[in-house]
Design brief:
CATH class: Alpha Beta
Pfam families: DUF3280
Organism: Salipiger thiooxidans
Shape: globular
CATH architecture: 3-Layer(aba) Sandwich
Radius of gyration: 15 Å
Keywords: Signal
InterPro entries: DUF3280 (IPR021698)
Strand content: 25-35%
Strand order of the largest sheet: 2-1-3-4-5
Order of helices and strands: HEHHEHHEEEH
Low-confidence stretches: 1-15
Mean pLDDT: 89
Helix content: 25-40%
Protein name: DUF2380 domain-containing protein
Number of helices: 6
Length: 163
């Protein structure tokens, strides 16, 4: 995972612009918590991943981005456990799809109290990070997850420029 300082610098770097195409490979859930080890997977967390993906799609669409159809790379995508950590496979697939950017995210659950989420946009052409941010959230609820992703979107991806 990139350091927060690196992500902050990248968040302030060259902007992506609306009207471009994004290959969104979803949000991966990484769960190393004792709760899940002891009690099994919580279906609410899987529903929250879907909620975050919908939030990302809705916001990017509202900002004028188009989403690439992932069907042409479905076989390749299905072989990948985590597109955020696949040594550039996300940008290679985005290039095959004719997209301008790849977009991937992760939520890592350490416990019901401590979770981390990130969203990264990379240039399909160069593989360079265009925008990205990591946030820590406290509490494992729909509201905390939504607030965490909204913070990333509002303060990194769609932050209004200061005049």
């Amino acid at each position: 995972m990139l350091s927060r300082a690196t992500l902050l610098i990248l968040a302030l770097s060259g902007p992506a612009t609306a009207g471009e195409t994004v290959a969104f490979f979803g949000i991966t859930f990484l769960d190393s918590s004792l709760q899940t080890a002891e009690l099994g997977q919580d279906p609410a967390e899987i529903a929250r991943i879907a909620m975050l993906e919908d939030l990302v799609r809705t916001r990017f669409t509202a900002e004028g981005y188009e989403f690439a159809d992932l069907e042409p790379v479905a076989t390749e995508r299905d072989r990948i456990v985590n597109p955020a950590k696949c040594y550039g496979c996300d940008t290679r697939m985005a290039t095959k799809l004719g997209a301008d950017y790849s977009l991937v995210g992760e939520v890592q659950k350490v416990s019901n109290l401590i979770l981390t989420m990130n969203l990264q946009m990379r240039s399909a052409e160069t593989g360079d990070m265009v925008k990205g941010r990591v946030v820590d959230i406290r509490s494992n609820t729909d509201e905390s997850w939504r607030r965490g992703m909204s913070y990333i979107l509002d303060n990194t991806f769609f932050k209004e420029e200061e005049e």
